[in-house]
Amino acid sequence: MAEFSLSDLQKIVSDRAHSGDPDSWTAKLFARGIDKAAQKLGEEAVETVIAAVKGDKQGLVSESADLIYHWLVVLSIAGVPLDDVLKELEGRTRRSGIAEKASRPKG
Ligand SMILES: N=c1c2ncn([C@@H]3O[C@H](COP(=O)(O)OP(=O)(O)OP(=O)(O)O)[C@@H](O)[C@H]3O)c2ncn1[C@@H]1O[C@H](COP(=O)(O)O)[C@@H](O)[C@H]1O
């Protein structure tokens, strides 16, 4: 299991966004705004789909990483906390009862 979470990456995105570092891609995306960041997110989504349908597992790993990073940038520029998305997913899981079923002892 990787010792790196979406929250870790989200913190890095927040820090780098306003770093003023001319080499920071994150800072560049923030400076260019939501349209450019959303465009990049769309491109990475398409590249992820292409890797998936080609059966390119290593490409799928790499494109998924690009996709998730750009998704977090878009959330951050839009002012939507990652936690809101996680809570939405948590709520859906609760409503479906899947979490309870998975934790119930079998037999
Ligand atoms: N995970 C990523 C990440 N994934 C992809 N990218 C960048 O996303 C960019 C997109 O690449 P593309 O080839 O699609 O785009 P491009 O041709 O460079 O740009 P355009 O011509 O489309 O404008 C590249 O510059 C990648 O380096 C990322 N940049 C940063 N991170 C994370 O953010 C952290 C901070 O990065 P900086 O902000 O650059 O310091 C890093 O340590 C990483 O953890």
TrEMBL record:
Cell compartment(s), UniProt: Cytoplasm
Catalysed reaction(s) here are: 1-(5-phospho-beta-D-ribosyl)-ATP + H2O = 1-(5-phospho-beta-D-ribosyl)-5'-AMP + diphosphate + H(+)
GO MF entry, a single one: phosphoribosyl-ATP diphosphatase activity
Give the EC class as a word.
Answer: hydrolase
Q: Which gene encodes it?
A: hisE
User: What top-level branch of life does the organism fall under?
Assistant: Bacteria
Keywords, A to Z, come to: Amino-acid biosynthesis, ATP-binding, Cytoplasm, Histidine biosynthesis, Hydrolase, Nucleotide-binding
Pathway participation: Amino-acid biosynthesis; L-histidine biosynthesis; L-histidine from 5-phospho-alpha-D-ribose 1-diphosphate: step 2/9
UniProt xrefs under InterPro entries: HisE (IPR008179), PRib-ATP_PPHydrolase-like (IPR021130)
What Gene3D superfamilies would the database entry show?
MazG-like (1.10.287.1080)
Q: Is Nucleotide-binding one of the keywords UniProt gives this record?
A: yes
Q: What is its EC number?
A: 3.6.1.31
Hydrolase keyword on record: yes
Q: What is this protein called?
A: Phosphoribosyl-ATP pyrophosphatase
Protein family (similarity comment): Belongs to the PRA-PH family.
